[in-house]
Amino acid sequence: MESLRLPNVKWICPTAPSRPVSSLGGFTCTAWFDVGEISEDGHDDLEGLDASASHIANLLSAEPADVQVGIGGVSMGAAISLYSATCYALGRYGTGHAYPINLRAVVGLSGWLPGWKILRGKIECSYEAARRAASLPIILTHGTSDDVVPYRFGEKSAQSLGMAGFRQAMFKPYEGLGHYTVPKEMDEVVHWLTTRLGLEGSR
């Protein structure tokens, strides 16, 4: 991350806890939450999502109040980042406890949005949630040849965010890209962060 040469940016890169993962036959590995098959009817591990979103928020809450805070990740890290974006908009976790971080940017690479089916209804029920959703910049990127998180789920996630009122959600496809990143994609993320966080004048 430090090779991205962004000025005045502090990177915090936590490692997910170890847990059994259903999609791997119960094999224990580092994972932000349990995940089975990624599908239209897939079950979301809301308890695991809330626990990881809370863990990451706790790490960020130690930062000074005048710092712009963002969350980003790849694959499952992208999923927890997008889930955190919905917690920010709603002002609470799925458990009902208050979400404490004022997010200013969210980056999701080769990931998906957990809970996308019910998001719009939740946001529309609250003026404050709609206002926060509309103000949050989000970038999603996805390779069209991703064989781990199929491209259509990245595209569907971006559409669901837009329909729920996340007006600044941007989706960028990469033709032929698999489940990995390439320099062109990372350059796009750097440009996006520089513009959205106003970093141009801080070099």
Automatic annotation (TrEMBL):
Which positions fall inside the Phospholipase/carboxylesterase/thioesterase domain?
Answer: 4-195
Q: Which SUPFAM superfamilies match?
A: alpha/beta-Hydrolases
Signal sequence range = none
Q: Which Pfam families match?
A: Abhydrolase_2
Which branch of life, at top level?
Eukaryota
InterPro entries linked: AB_hydrolase_fold, PLipase/COase/thioEstase
Q: Could you identify this protein by its name?
A: Acyl-protein thioesterase 2-like isoform X5
